[in-house]
Amino acid sequence: MRRTTMSTSRLSRGLAVATVAAAFSGLLGIPAHAAEPPPGQGVPPAIPTAEPDVGSTTIPAATQREKFDAVNAIHVGEPTDDWLRLSDKNFVFRIYDKISIDKFPRTKAEASRVYGLTVPDASVFIRTGVHEFVQRDQDEQVLRDAEKQHRVTTRMKAIENAHIAPDPAMLDLTDRNFVFQVFSRATTGSKVKAGAATAYQGDAAVWKTFIEVTVLELAEQDDLAAIEKARQQGEEEAQRVERELKRRSAVAAIPATFQTVWLQAPDDVFIRELLRLPELAVPANIEIKDAADLASRSTDPAVWRTFVNTGLKEAADRGKARREREEDEANRRVVREIRTRAENGGVRPRLVAAADTALTGSRADVVAFLREGQYQVLNQSLQTVTPGVKGWYVHTGGGDAWITPGQAGTDGTKPLPYATWKVANGLADPLCYSFESVDRTGNYLRQQDFRVKLHGNDGTDAFKRDATWCPKRTGWGIALESKAQPGRVLRHIDAQLWVAQLGGGNWFDTERLFNEDSGWKVVAPNPEVSTPLMLGWYNDDQLRALAGNPKAAEVHDAGVRYRDFQNGRVYWGPETGARFVTGEVHTRYLALGGHKWLLPLTHQVTGNGSAKISLQQGVALYWTPATGAKLVMGAIRGKWDSLGAETGQLGFPTSDEYDIPGGRRSDFQNGWYITWNAADGEMKVLRRVVIPVG
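Structure for Alpha-L-arabinofuranosidase B arabinose-binding domain-containing protein, as requested:
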């Protein structure tokens, strides 16, 4: 048998002969091209190339009924003719102008934003957006109330501790202006005044910290300085000043307005006066009230003095901690309710994950989720689960909807357009969902005569039903039942999307792969185009298990694709498909030229302390810790394979194939080697004989 010889230097320049691969592919069981899908699995259809029907994405102007409903939603009085006659843009401006910023701050801000956009955006806001943001504002009212109470309380404490005359107007100022007023009204030469001047030059975080923390610390330092100054006039004067400051600090902890008549009152009288304050009748101050009541019942002056000096503040701190715990637990209950609904629905996995993160976080994390986070994770994509067709996505820029992996071209990683959907509450049923295009605001996936399409929402009840989908879990993922066509679910077939029913009588109701085709995996938004490499990864369970998830962008180089994954690298070629390489084998493969030399024909197999992979043109790489990564190829590889390869008597190769006089040779474990004669193709399996000396 004649074969072509190769030296290591020639390997680095690439192999020029393809006959070896043809000769040995059958012998060694090496596929000559990418594998076909296993029998019974889905066969990919042609990738759709239809242009979007932009006309179908037109957003109709808001109807008078929709404007009537919008006015009622924002609580600004009757929807009179002067409202209803306005154009959609002017209507949105009037919402901004008339709506209460205290009750509906988010709706007001969104109306301002939308007014700066297009007329269709204004129509969408009137039709659905205003109701969505009104609901957000109403849901957030509890948070705003708590935030307002916290703001008032901390500012009152700041005012009282800084010995500034109470002014209700200061309670509603912005943080920056409040800091300025503290600077203006604080005692000249005090640390509070100097600290306020410094804080005023800072940013929002500095102002907030000054109001909640710094001003109290500086006021305490000013108090200590005042006591020390009074001590220079005598101990009696120092005790008088300290008593006054302690009482002012105690009242500030409630907080309440200090009364000058309390300055000369004995401690027990002062405590009884505190019990008459209306602030102590508020449930939020129950800890202070109970502590004051207990102290007032004592006959020990030391108990009264301790309560005034430290006990009231300690009780206030306990009350604050209790209120924070109660608020936090109430907020966490709401997060858990949101999470439960998202988990049960199955179409908002990012919302579930965000809720889980918030629940393991701080109070601030929970509030941030309720205020913003839950609305930032509603975008998702719908991916197919049919074997052989995995890695395709629901996609449309208008009109008919399809599934597609996208057009890879010669690029590496790039986004797939028109495949991301905002998972909104169902237009016709809040217990179900609607899928709004993030690329075309106000457009939803809907069924029309069983075909699934992307159309602009016209506000009719029929459209709302057509665009509402009720999820159900199946063994193949999430099935989406049409609200307009009960019993029919979203199904892909021949890349088209229909609402289908098993045995329904239409061509798209066929039994074959019905469950697989109507199951969906809800995945992250903004998916990449599924290149041939990624389609191989999606549809090869073994490859996914070997490689893990992608960790870098895909590279396209001279017709070959490769991408780094968690556990190694995947290479794809049109004749080989997607194949996995890792570790020492991959290091040696790169040293030999990588994909510019040969492509892998099989996934790398690792086990029992060794690794191996077959490459094009009859070449293979084998690795063990003792031998390193060595090449075996051509006729020598064929002979070695016939003897059991690495599991046979010869064991693993200990050298690459190399030139010898008249032929080629490869060395193996235990002293074995195989030679090939260039003249007649003769193969010899030999073993070195070691002759003892002596």
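The chain has a mean pLDDT of 92.
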